[in-house]
Amino acid sequence: MRLGMISRCDADALDLVQRLGFRCFEWARFEESACGSHNADWRSAADALREETKRRDLRITSIAVWYRNALDPKQSDDARRILHRSIEVAAFLGIRTIAAFPGAVIETTFNERGGVPAFSQAEKFLAQVVDFWKPLAQHARDSGVRIAFEHCPQGPWNLPSAHWNIFGQPALWQPFFDAAGYDNLGIEWDAAHLICQMIDPLQNLREFGRRIFHVHAKDAWINEPLLRRYGICHPGVAEHRFPGFGQTNWAQVIHELIRAGYDSDINIEGWHDPIYRDHLEETGLRIARQTLEPLIPTE
Fold first, then answer.
1. Cβ neighbours of residue 43 under 8 Å, at least 6 residues apart?
2. CA 249/CA 293 separation, integer angstroms
3. Which residues are within 8 A (CB) of 58 and not within 5 positions of it... i.e. 6 or more apart?
4. pLDDT tens-digit readout, 189-239
5. Which of 115, 118, 209, 236 has the lowest CB atom count within 10 Å?
6. Could you tell me which of 226, 248, 250, 229 has the C-alpha nearest to residue 238?
7. CA 129 to chain CA mean position, Å
8. How many folded domains does the chain comprise?
9. Residue-range definition of the domain harbouring residue 88
10. pTM above 0.90, yes or no
């Protein structure tokens, strides 16, 4: 297991990864790279990246591919094309996992009493989401690649209301996996999203640990006085933070990951912290590294 961060794959970005002392990264902004679906000669670019990461002793844990709504008809064709290319690139480079949002089918009805649109429940369209991903899951499995779904709710107040990511509701994870029937479909796990929904990360890990293919190290903090005064749907009640400033018990998280047989790396996702972002992001990354590094089993 290695500790890393989310990063682009250009030289300047990899310089930062090394300067901060990390040994792996999740490859972000894939479609903007020379390996994206716009470039027919992607293998040459991939070979160059292979040599560059080898020279730096950096491992690409996962490719972060599609964090939009693949079930939106305006996006579906682009999503298929880009995801298909990312699977090819991952197989070519020996990267075990690509990551994405599964998305959601959006349907609204009109609430006559309130005079406002109302969102239909996401589980109503579970079968359609599964049908979109099954061909990609088959292609990925044939290529020796896994697909990990991140569970960011993408709704207001960090909650899965009026949202467009079906995995924002952990109650739908197992029904999705059961309906899809592919063991190479799993989770890109993030403690912060669970904490912001008042879900116990450790209990969630114990239930789904064997489905976790990649981990984002991001933390969260619940402002209890504000919660008790105004409730969960109030700005500032739930706040994303770097590890070291939140409420996650990282020693127990890593303990449970190892118990579940987790076989990948942990990459810090940091730009959501309201204090340590922008010009202070490097400081936040250093603090997160100092928090997590003593807990990571060394290779």
1. 92
2. 14
3. 4, 14, 17, 18, 22, 23, 24, 25
4. 999 999 999 999 999 999 999 999 999 999 999 999 999 999 999 999 999
5. 115
6. 226
7. 18
8. 1
9. 3-291
10. yes
